[in-house]
Amino acid sequence: MGFCWVNKYRWHLLAMSIVIAVIFAVGAKNLTQTADYKVYFDKSNTQLMASEKLGDDYSQSDNLLFVIAPKSGSVFTKETLATVQKLTEESWQIPYSTRVDSITNFQHSYAQEDDLIIEDLVGDLESMTAADIQDIRSTALNEPNLINRLISDDAAVTGVNVTINFTEGKVDSQTREVVAHARDLIEETLASNPDIDMYLTGIVIMNNAFPETTEKDNGKLIPLMLLIILVGLYFLLRSITAVSATLLVMLLSIGAAVGVAGWTGMALNPVSGAAPIIILTVAVADCVHLLLSFVHYYRVNGYEKHKAMQEALRLNAKPVMLTSLSTIIGFLTMNFSDAPPFRELGNIAAVGIAVACFLSLTLLPALINILPVKKLSNKKPQNQNLSNLLRGIAGWVSKHPAKVLLVGIIAAVGLSAAAMKNELNEDFIRYFDESYDVRKSTEFALNNLTGIAIVEYDLPAEAGEKISQPEYMNNLEKFSNWLYEQPEVVHVNTFSDVVKRLNKNMNGDDQSFYTIPDNSDLISQYILLYETSLPYGLGITERVKLDKSATRMTVTLDDLTNNQLLAFEQHAQNWMADNLPAYMHSDGLGWSMMFGNVAQDNIDSMLWATAIALIVISFILIFPFRSAKLGVLSLIPNVLPALVALGIWGLTVGMIGLAASIITALTFGIVVDDSIHFISRYVHNRRVNNMNPQQALNDTYTSVGKAIVVTSIVLVIGFAILATSGFKVNSTIGYLSSLTLLVALIMDLTILPALLLKFDSWIFARDLNEDRLNIEQGEKV
After folding, report:
1. pLDDT tens track for 748-777
2. Cα angle vertex 312, ends 307, 392, to 5°?
3. Rounded to an integer, what distance in angstroms lies between the CA atom of residue 132 and that of residue 140?
4. Residue 235's Cα: distance from chain center in Å?
5. Cα–Cα distance between 137 and 108 in angstroms, integer?
6. Which of 549, 564, 696, 778 is the most buried (most CB within 10 A)?
7. DSSP per residue over 151-203, as a string?
8. Burial class of residue 619 in the structure, from the number of CB atoms within 10 Å of its CB (0-12 exposed, 13-18 middle, 19+ buried)
9. Whole-angstrom Cα distance, residue 636 to residue 627?
């Protein structure tokens, strides 16, 4: 028999498969988890390079934001100001901090006779009177560089912003160090100040949430999923040996995949960190098809153990390899993604699926042949209720194939049409659910203090000139004024406000002089005077390039979706083209714009990936079935599930972002799994067993139907568990994948068999003609 070598070389197969898997898995020791949002971008990404240059020319924009909300509702009390002042001083001790900004150390400038005085807005609190504090309040609420940035317009909430400059190549470890220090600082502050609430947000905190998400998901979701799968497998197979062999296949597949990731220098992130869960579900699907067939031949038909495994391999080896190949192709098409984490997810999953296929055809049968497998006392088929259900479905579909097709196709097409309701959009602020402090803190800051989305503009002076030119400063102010007119703008940090304040100070603090001077030399003198008066750490290089050839403008925006952000940037570009000289034009930069653009590009590229996956997998299906007709027909139950799922998503959610854009490419290969097994068995029955269409269909339901149902349920449960992730990308992948696979199961048990029955004579026309010719030749003889 074709697979007799599996028993003959069982010990060799066992040793070989384990050694190969372990060699791969050893690479896992090199794995790290990244806390750097820049991993979502290629190093050649123009937005990333421009944003990094902006940080080099001025200062880095990575930040921590402590948000302080006194329970009294007023920041301007001695107690609260003292807390802010102390927190500001202690924040300088946070590792890698390069700048700390708050209302207490804001460099307030004013005139004293002929002198310009620059000092902290809040000095010695002990000597201050209520009138002094009221003056501070008035100054802060009228200062453009503070209001809606470090103090709310109702004076109820304030912030301390800490700028962090990480060492190149050490972002991951240093992020954890910074966050740990900041959290300790909050605990200490709250312990001595019970009358305030504190929140921690900022880019560094959001970065840190990435590895925390991966650790939380892997620590909670994978064990839960393993438990559910193992319990389900035991009740299905009633064999500790079979369950243990499956567990080993799953663990070695995951280990080998993450090991290859380690060997190739990948760093796990929340997206690629979902690969083990995906590998787990696909690996168990391979094993279940083989084991259910083995159990049937071993316990029901009474075959010897090694012969039962040979028969199971004979029937399932080709479908398992074919489904694994199609699934691998589906995941490999994720290399079309513009975001590296999605490419890494696809590649890690593809390796794991390939290893799972290899182990399910070597390690699994070797273990079954070596270890004892209990025979039940009777030979009745297991899972009789499931068998009865499948026979009932088979009878119903056989009686009404036309109605099943009509109703099924109409419903599928109708739901698929709802996919058009989806808006191609993204909401990065809510990447983490409410179980993460960063989500609650960020939303509190958005609602009570300032925005989180940042757009940076690097605005150069005319070639050979300096920013001290009145024309340049007036254009800077003009742009700032226009920005403030936009409803989505919360704050604009521009150096033109500093120049206007200095002009007012140097003219007796007369408010009428709060304008841009019309003299270049005067502006230069103001800038020099201001620069030399600032304390260490609070210099002007955050806003002004060292050679005074450009300034940096930072625009803080309200709570925006990706489309709104991109629309704002396009509006700003149009305004600059019409109102600013060409030399001042600048593209919007910063993490918000980087994510906004990569999301849009990724959606477009994954549409191409889906089309390629569809063509390649469909072409592959033609060869094993030896029928282009079957290849074409199989597209219907393979393509429609993802479209139906996206239609349901359109009716319930209505937004397709980074995660949802990859679903069709990600699930297409997995969806093909069940349809391949179903079609393979049906074709085998028609061509090899010479059954008529009705007999072929009934046998297909009862022989592979259980495996299809069980593997689909395992996959649905696996992805449903992923849907509970607190990271939006993973939860979206989990939800949409489980929905897609559930729809695919329904179609494989209804629409697919109805198609096979209705088009049987067309599909097997060649076979029928050959049979007819053989009969005629036999009669002549």
Report:
1. 999 999 999 988 888 877 654 444 434 344
2. 125
3. 12
4. 34
5. 12
6. 696
7. B-TTSS-EEEEEEE-PPTT-HHHHHHHHHHHHHHHHHHHHHH-TTEEEEEESH
8. exposed
9. 15
